[in-house]
Amino acid sequence: MKIRTLLVVALSVATFGCGGSKKAQQAQVAPQPDWVKARVSSPIYYYGIGAARKTFDVSQYQQAARQNALADMASEISISISSNSVLHAFESNLNFREDFTSTIRAQAQQDLEGYELVDTWDDLENYWVFYRLSKAQHQELKERRKNDAATRSLDFFTSGINSRGNGDIRIAMVQLIKALEPIKPYFSEPLPVEFNGQQIFLGNEIFKELSATLSQIEVVAQGDNISVKTGQRVTSDNLQFKTEFRRQGLVSGIPLVASYSERPIRNNKQRSSTAGLATFEIDLVRSIKSSETFTATFDIDDVLAEAGADPFIRKLVGRFTLPQGVIRLNISKPSFAIISREILLGEVLQPGYIEESFRKKAVEAGYVIKGEPSSADYTVRISAIANRRDDSGQFKNVSIEGVLSVEDSNGKSIYHLPLSGFSGRHFEHKQAGEEAFKEAQRRFEVTYFREIQEAISRR
User: What is the pLDDT of residue 142?
Assistant: First the structure.
């Protein structure tokens, strides 16, 4: 009985202690302030309110709440789009405007200055922060930054206009793009400045001059059409482009990027020489089509990289149409001459089995067959001799030995294959030899002709 009494007393004390602790914790939480309950507003201040869930790391959740409060304050600062601003031209492009708004919000949060802590509040689970910023003070700081940005931008703009007048078109483009970076936070504003005795809207004027500069660059192909055969290379003598600037003539240092419709090429980026010329090469034409195109385009990415433009500026500048020149490649198939020596048990075959297969496949592929090697691009040499082998009972055995090769017009070998392993069995030697040649013929049509084509295209 005494033990039961002690147990009841102990449980009662424990229960009372827990309840008292909980009530003590609740008593420590201050009443929720009005700024937590409802959004506050003022004609004098911007407000920012942020909260974060409590964790074991006090400094971490307090810092998170402060950042959330500053982000909240930045979102309260409205962005209006002036009809004389850069962004006005993109009003129909919702994705671009959304990108701009999010970029400027992030920048505005970084640039917030002069804000002050009004209050903090926390309960058992969350921590709250309340900031405010004088609208007048913020506007004063913003105007100061905007004027500084406009001054730096105008310096780049002036340098770009002067470079263009001096014929340095690439540097002009670089400087004009650099002029965009300082004023990026103000693309929604008109930015009136004085330039050469006139008032201009700086952002719009930069874009106008960028567009005007690009529109006057010409990439002129030296020859609209060239003829080439499959398996040949196209040298720099045939892939030339001149870079010109209207009213100034040939200009140097213009970056070009080349593209070939058949496949990517190596060394596809060049800057025009002092003579205003850029040249390219195609190491090998492999196309089976009758034509391909080779295009050289003004390399805006090269200019953007030199200007150090960020992704947002790159996207903005990417709206321009770029000058380019095009050369058409008219592609023809090479020609072949055939020298064949196919012998069946001492009898020369005219025409030979393998020779007939080559002619058939070549005509199907659009190649031309010439009578003399001197007039052909390639010469096919076929040597195949069928001889008797040991008989097997009543069956007669015949097998082929020889060589299949292809050489170019300079006598250089591009394909060489020993012919062996083809055999035939029959009651008569002649029929056995014919079977051996037919086996070689099938292998040629399925495999060897394709290998010859690949050898030509790999040259």
Answer: 86
